[in-house]
Amino acid sequence: MNVIKNYSLHKLNTFGIDVNAKLYCEINSTDELIEIIGSDDFKNNQVLILGGGSNLLFTKDYNGIVVKNNLKGIEVVEENNDHVSVTVGGGENWHEFVMHCVNNNYGGIENLSLIPGNVGASPMQNIGAYGVEVKDTITKVEAIDLSDGAIKVFSNADCNFGYRTSVFKQELKNKYLISAVTFQLTKQPTFNTSYGAITSELEAMGVTDLSIKNISKAVCNIRSSKLPDVKVTGNAGSFFKNPVIDSSTFEKLKSDYPEVANYPQPNGKVKLAAGWMIEQCGWKGKRIKDYGVHPQHALVLVNYGVSNGQDIYNLSGEIIASVEEKFSVTLEREVNIL
């Protein structure tokens, strides 16, 4: 196992923050992971498991060992006339996996097209977009205990999925590496076009017959028009979660701001659009030196050049404070801060 000292992470995080890891290695098999877990480099340092680097913000050099998850593979493990179960390595690129499913007419995750990151992060974050959450298709998660290398299989229920969270972000945070995820996808898709933007985009595309490919294309078009390309402009996608509040708090907010963007939830609570509130506070498109808020999407903080992560973190704090002051709603960062 090749462990590299003082390794640059500049190209391994989508914010493009130029920091170094004290130690760095890549694992391409579970045997390699078990080997590194048993090493002194691993035992004597803090550990960061790195996937696509799309949901984190480095504010300083990482004084520990970074382990890059390169576990690959896409395998059909069960199939019938209605469904197909696919097991995917945690190091596979998420969007490339979605395109694999779209091209094979496997339905269920087409609304999650063009989300950055790797498959291993999908259950951790319970990624979601346009009315779909990945928890609805995951049947099991295979993970490796970082304390002893033991393999554990988590059922969907074991993962304790919530809005943009799971057991892997809560009580089991930093305790496991997700080696593989199994998805149950459908051959008889039910199309989810509940978000108006998808319907409008399909109309603009001239689509009359719904298909997995057309919905995926519509989602890609929408995301490309609103979100900056991480290959061009450093960002981590949505920086903040959309807050969920109780109905009585919402009614008071609505009385003060009748136009407040909102999405009623099945449990009686109400999800608010964080981007709308940030925009109302005047942050959308604001640029400070080489960092700021994207002009097309107020949820996205961006690195235009060689900004450091601490500046971007400080900006997020100012945004949280201004939203709190104006709306009495506290935003929560979705991005992991290191």
What is the distance, rounded to the nearest whole angstrom, between the alpha carbons of the first and last residues?
25 Å
Work out the radius of gyration. 20 Å
Share of helical residues: 25-40%
Instruction: Give me the strand/helix succession.
Output: EEHHEEEEEHHEEEEEHHEEHEEHEEEHE
Please identify, by name, the CATH architecture of the largest domain.
Answer: 2-Layer Sandwich
The poorly predicted ranges are none
Order of strands across the main sheet: 6-7-12-10-11
- Which overall shape is indicated by the principal axes computed on the Cα atoms? globular
> Under the CATH scheme, which class of the largest domain?
Alpha Beta
Count of distinct strands: 20
How many independent structural domains?
3
The major pleated sheet works out as: 5 strands, antiparallel
What's the tally of helices? 9
Question: Would you mind describing this structure in some detail?
Answer:
The structure is a single chain. By secondary structure, the protein is an alpha+beta fold. It has three domains: 66 residues, Uridine Diphospho-n-acetylenolpyruvylglucosamine Reductase, domain 2 (2-Layer Sandwich); 113 residues, Uridine Diphospho-n-acetylenolpyruvylglucosamine Reductase, domain 3, CATH 3.30.465; 104 residues, Uridine Diphospho-n-acetylenolpyruvylglucosamine Reductase, domain 1, CATH 3.90.78. The chain contains nine helices and 20 strands. The strands form six sheets. A five-stranded antiparallel sheet has the order 6-7-12-10-11. Strand 6 and strand 7 form a beta hairpin. Helix 5 packs across helix 6. The longest helix is centred in the C-terminal third of the chain and has 19 residues. The mean pLDDT is 92.
